[in-house]
Amino acid sequence: MKVELHGLRLFGYHGVHASEGRLGRTFLFDVELEVGERGTSDRIADAVDYSAVARAVREVNDRRFDLLEALAAAVADDLLERFRPECVRVRVRKPGIRPGGATVDWAAVTVERP
Questions:
Q1: Given 94, 103, 107, 109, which residue is catalytic?
Q2: Is 2 designated active site?
Q3: Chain centre to alpha carbon of residue 2
Q4: Taking the model in full, what pTM does it have?
């Protein structure tokens, strides 16, 4: 069984350019946690509460990172520690950028932890 959050929009101040740290932007998080049979009892106390997962992602996002890789890894590590899933997958998307003057919908980094 998986607990998934896709398109979690959070404002953050991540990036290597000084303007990114000053102005900030919206980042999109896609999170998947393999949780086994947790929650099949129909009791929230036995489950991984996706509201708590969203809060955990927000807390990590409130810190500042230069690289998407470091941000995604920090989120994955935090979710592993807090919720003890069998596996976690975190993708962080940075929309509205122009790498090398090109137009792209977004850049992303994906981290998986067993």
A1: 94
A2: no
A3: 15
A4: 0.94
